[in-house]
Amino acid sequence: MATSTVDIDAAILGGGIAGLWLLNVLRNAGYGTVLLESGRLGSGQTLASQGLIHGGLKYALGGALTAASEAMAAMPARWRACLAGTGEVDLTPLRPLSDDFYFFAQGGAAGKLAAFFASKLLHGRVRRLQPDEFPPFLPASTCKCVVHRLDDFVLDPYSLVKRLADLGAPHIHQMDERAKIEVRQHGAIIHTTRARIACNRLILAAGAGNETLLRHLRIPVAMQRRSLRQVIVTGPTLGPFYGHCLTGINRPEPRLTITSHPDGTDAPDNRRWLWSLGGQLAEEGAGRSPADQRRHARHELQACLPWLDWRQVHLDSFHLHRAEPLQPGNRLPHQAFAQKLGNCIVCWPTKLTLAPDLGDKVLPLMSKPQHPDPPVLDLPAATLGTPPWGK
User: Fold this and answer.
1) How far apart are CA 150 and CA 135, in angstroms?
2) What domains are defined for the chain?
């Protein structure tokens, strides 16, 4: 192991949305910070996400605002400020795949929520559309739906990870397989073959990887996993589609959450699109076999979008484990999580949209910067991962 020591304010373990966001927030606040990734950037949960930046209204489909819906209410505006160059992280080169998101339903599901959506409580967050305002992928002449527009939008996860990595370079490194971590009274030491890194704060932001780190470092924070089986739909006639289907819902959550992503094979003016399916389909699908999930997904598409021809599409699925802090009854957490124990900070954003909230929670747990301009480490750079459907 190397003997020369580099002193820094913070070392972040994990290069998903949590680690990359925190790296940029902390460096912008004057902290000398490095990020170490054991695999590839974004390759856990981040690149498998649907890229939805939302304000939590999908958690209010019971007809009342909830802790979850309100914890996220400010998130779209926070992210839009970053896209405009006025937020805490400069995302100006990025453009949303869709500037809007939609609730849609055939029959009475959306109608029953109309009064709630129209209430003063939700002013500016959701608006019912007239048929001539429907987006192109919900043609009023054939879909016969009730449609509401949300103040939510979708980013391409790959482009987001790349932008955050570009901003953080050259302080993002591959974690040495032989690296050892030693937590001390006044910080932590990370021993690698090329550098000995002394940090005032060790930040665990490795998603599901936190579980192993917590056990190894004997930190008493518990994690839970939430399993999903998301579905990818490809076909020659698919175009962009962004919406929550509420048709026939029997519990307060979207039946399908559909986002679209370029499949990476064509120029921007001749894109081919794939669809990512989440929502109730993905949550209930965790216990299904891949074949059963494909069959069920095809049934759901035919029921939710019957005006489209589904004969030429191909369906595939992948398992995803969302890592979260342990909640009573394994409930869904409704805000980002950060807890300081000694000189370690354990964190999970819990959802992509809550990355700014995670920054808000971590900054107060930091001591004053002492090493704002550490030297660049002699370590290999971490590389970008790929989405489950490739890039």
Assistant:
1) 12
2) 1-97+157-222+326-391 (3.50.50.60), 101-150+227-323 (3.30.9)
